[in-house]
């Protein structure tokens, strides 16, 4: 299957992408991984992306699209892939269609993870990270530490990242609504969109997604 995964920040796309890709036996292709791999390998596209990123500029669509095209042509993606974080806007969606058409391929589904905006804010703004080890992550509601502000694992101080503040989260949601959400209508016109609620436990959401995709 060839799937695009969409949803607002905080919808759990990365988590669901990993589980779905494993269940479907297809590679999980995320924009972040594409950038990191190309930059670390020193590819031409990676060097271009790094130059823009170092200058504090957005990486142009054509660079991102080129990376995605190269990745989708790898042997492990011959039977399908799951795209996470790409396409990010309608222009990228149109470019993806053109790339797939040129290769004689097409998308099978666009999985839309639906989460109420207040829940997104609650999920992200409630995160607390350990200063000693950023791998230790807690949540004031869903995974509260035994002692407020103290990491259960190493005793480090827990803090809220600037990116996780409610103000920043709401700005990210505005960007999502403006830039990314329109691709849902774009794909809905192609009868590709499958929408599920991303509320509930991780395995419950994965089960809902798998059932929806099978239909």
Automatic annotation (TrEMBL):
Q: Which CDD domains match?
A: ADK
PROSITE patterns membership: ADENYLATE_KINASE (PS00113)
What region holds the Adenylate kinase active site lid domain?
A: 127-163
Entry binding sites for AMP: 31, 36, 57-59, 85-88, 92, 161, 172
Region: NMP; residue ranges are 30-59
Has UniProt tagged this entry with the keyword Nucleotide-binding? yes
Q: Which residues bind ATP?
A: 10-15, 127, 137-138, 200
* Kinase listed as a keyword: yes
Enzyme Commission number(s): 2.7.4.3
A single cellular component GO annotation: cytoplasm
- What chemistry does it catalyse, as a reaction equation? AMP + ATP = 2 ADP
Q: Which InterPro entries match?
A: Adenyl_kin_sub, Adenylat/UMP-CMP_kin, Adenylat_kinase_CS, Adenylate_kinase_lid-dom, P-loop_NTPase
Which Gene Ontology MF annotations are present? AMP kinase activity; ATP binding
Per UniProt, subcellular location reads as:
Cytoplasm
* One BP annotation, GO: AMP salvage
Named in its record, the pathway it takes part in is: Purine metabolism; AMP biosynthesis via salvage pathway; AMP from ADP: step 1/1
Q: Which Pfam families match?
A: ADK, ADK_lid
Record's subunit section: Monomer.
Function of the protein: Catalyzes the reversible transfer of the terminal phosphate group between ATP and AMP. Plays an important role in cellular energy homeostasis and in adenine nucleotide metabolism.
About its domains, the entry says: Consists of three domains, a large central CORE domain and two small peripheral domains, NMPbind and LID, which undergo movements during catalysis. The LID domain closes over the site of phosphoryl transfer upon ATP binding. Assembling and dissambling the active center during each catalytic cycle provides an effective means to prevent ATP hydrolysis.
Q: What is this protein called?
A: Adenylate kinase
- Species name for this entry? Streptomyces cinereoruber
Q: Gene symbol?
A: adk
